[in-house]
């Protein structure tokens, strides 16, 4: 690992993904990042305490004074990771972009961390969340010219993928839209967090910065419903469960007629069409060459821990 030291500010660093990001910087990547600032609306929360105990400096976010607080929080910071949820106010989104643009930050991670929606297939009726993410990404890149702005796509998180993809481990039933052998990518939150830290180090090092794309895809594991069913049977010592397969076309047609609202339906349809498979054209070897930094968590590992 490079001997250079850096500083990072994490927005949403107490959250579902964010706490893993905070912990990765505070533990495995501590020698590269002695300064970790986590922005939170409530520094007294249990999640904020847990991170502070590991060495993070907490910065209290106050919506009424956001521009000033962000400006202060981004001072002397090399990397900003935006792990805020999509539903935060437009005003807050704009305040983050404005403060990041004004700062001397060198690397900025967009609030992506999901499907690679650049390849999604709903022309004219894409999901509002993805349309919004694309708008914010374009605006951030325009306003942060001269800084490295990275979108990291990792597919579904393990825990999320199980709940939304029709996988019921308890009942040992697996429901796919379309073919149950269609594969999709899923990554553990810990590995997403480690990848962010590694990309930050690579992007900050003048010798490797040119290797880091603006749009980065990773795929901790790529599996189908059938493969998950077989993994559960192996790991839990149960018989191979039932597979259900639903016709994809009515689901796709329903979204065409009623675009918008149902995010999980969008995910399931695009995954059924093979667009959730990030196993090709990804940056796994750049991020973690030959698994030199960590072993990617497998679906087997995840099932064993359930
Ligand atoms: N790939 C996947 O399967 C998947 C699944 C879920 C999310 N994601 C992505 O991961 C990223 C983070 O999502 P997440 O679910 O981890 O976020 P989250 O846990 O919902 O929120 C992260 C943190 O943001 C702060 N926060 C929450 N609501 C806020 C508000 N209205 N205004 C200001 N701050 C607020 C909270 O911190 P404090 O209370 O400490 O302020 C919270 O701990 C997003 O880009 C999301 O799209 C991906």
Helix run count: 12
What helical percentage do the residues reach? 25-40%
What portion of the residues fall into strands of 2 or more residues?
15-25%
Which ligands appear in the coordinates?
NADP nicotinamide-adenine-dinucleotide phosphate
- What structural class should be given to the helix and strand makeup? alpha/beta
Mean pLDDT: 95
Overall 3D shape: globular
Order of helices and strands: EHEHEHEHEHEEHEEEHEEHEHHHH
Output the strand order for the largest sheet.
3-2-1-4-5-6-11
Amino-to-carboxy terminus distance: 33 Å
Question: What's the Cα radius of gyration?
Answer: 20 Å
Characterization of this structure:
This protein is α/β, with parallel strands linked by helices. The chain has helices at 18-26, 46-53, 66-73, 90-102, 128-143, 158-164, 189-204, 225-236, 248-257, 263-272, 284-287, 299-305; strands spanning 7-11, 35-40, 57-60, 79-82, 107-109, 148-153, 156-157, 167-168, 173-177, 183-187, 215-217, 221-224, 242-246. The model has no long low-confidence stretch (mean pLDDT 95). The structure holds NADP nicotinamide-adenine-dinucleotide phosphate. NADP nicotinamide-adenine-dinucleotide phosphate binds next to strand 7. NADP nicotinamide-adenine-dinucleotide phosphate binds at residues 12, 14-18, 40-42, 45, 48, 61, 83-86, 88, 92, 111-114, 154, 156-157, 160.
List the helices and strands and how they pair.
Elements: E1 7-11, H1 18-26, E2 35-40, H2 46-53, E3 57-60, H3 66-73, E4 79-82, H4 90-102, E5 107-109, H5 128-143, E6 148-153, E7 156-157, H6 158-164, E8 167-168, E9 173-177, E10 183-187, H7 189-204, E11 215-217, E12 221-224, H8 225-236, E13 242-246, H9 248-257, H10 263-272, H11 284-287, H12 299-305
Parallel strand pairs: 1-2, 1-4, 2-3, 4-5, 5-6, 6-11, 7-10, 9-13
Antiparallel strand pairs: 8-9, 10-12
The chain binds NADP nicotinamide-adenine-dinucleotide phosphate.
NADP nicotinamide-adenine-dinucleotide phosphate (NAP) is lined by residues 12, 14-18, 40-42, 45, 48, 61, 83-86, 88, 92, 111-114, 154, 156-157, 160.
GO molecular function, one term: oxidoreductase activity
Keywords: NADP, Oxidoreductase
Domain NmrA-like: 6-239
């Amino acid at each position: 690992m490079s001997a250079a030291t850096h500083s990072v500010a994490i927005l949403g660093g107490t959250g579902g993904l964010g706490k893993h990001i905070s912990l990765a910087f505070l533990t495995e990547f501590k020698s590269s990042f002695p300064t970790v600032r986590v922005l939170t609306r409530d520094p007294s929360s249990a999640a904020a305490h847990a991170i502070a105990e590991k060495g993070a400096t907490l910065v209290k976010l106050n919506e009424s004074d956001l521009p000033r607080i962000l400006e202060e929080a981004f001072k002397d910071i090399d990397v900003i990771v935006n792990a805020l949820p999509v539903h935060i106010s437009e005003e807050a989104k704009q305040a983050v972009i404005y403060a990041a643009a004004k700062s001397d930050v060198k690397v900025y991670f967009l609030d992506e961390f999901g499907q690679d929606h650049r390849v999604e297939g709903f022309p004219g009726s894409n999901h509002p969340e993805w349309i919004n993410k694309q708008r914010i990404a374009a605006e951030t890149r325009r306003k942060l010219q001269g800084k490295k702005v990275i979108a990291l796509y990792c597919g579904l998180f393990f825990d999320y993928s199980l709940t939304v993809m029709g996988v019921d481990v308890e009942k040992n039933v697996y429901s796919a839209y379309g073919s149950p052998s269609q594969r999709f990518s899923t990554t553990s939150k810990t590995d997403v967090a480690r990848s962010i830290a590694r990309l930050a180090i690579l992007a900050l090092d003048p010798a490797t910065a040119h290797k880091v794309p603006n749009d980065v895809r990773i795929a901790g594991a790529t599996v189908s419903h059938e493969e998950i069913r077989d993994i559960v049977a192996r790991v839990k010592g149960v018989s191979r469960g039932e597979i259900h397969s639903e016709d994809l076309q009515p689901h796709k047609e329903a979204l065409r007629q009623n675009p918008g609202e149902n995010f999980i339906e969008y995910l399931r349809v695009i995954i059924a069409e093979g667009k959730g498979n990030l196993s090709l054209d990804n940056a796994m070897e750049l991020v973690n060459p030959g698994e030199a930094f960590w072993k990617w968590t497998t679906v087997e590992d995840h099932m064993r821990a359930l």
